[in-house]
Amino acid sequence: MTLHVTALPSPTTTSDTECSTADTEILSSAPTSPLLRKRWPEFFDIPNFSVDVAYRLRQGDLAFMKDGTRTPLTRDMKHDTLEKLAETMYSYKAYPEDDNFSSVAKALISKHPGLTEPGSQPGWYGWKNSLKFKMANYRTKLRKAGCEDVSINGGKRSKGNPEGDSSSKNIKRPKRGEANYLPNLPEGHNETSLENDRQTLIEEMKKRRPSGILISKMMDQTFPLRRQEIVKNEPEVKNMIERWPALFTERQVFAEFNRIASKNLEGEFFEALDQHTPRFIKLFRSKKGTVGQKLTELMQQINLVTSDVTSLRSIVLKGIPVVVGDDSSEFYKTCLESL
Question: pLDDT averaged over the chain?
Answer without folding.
Answer: 84
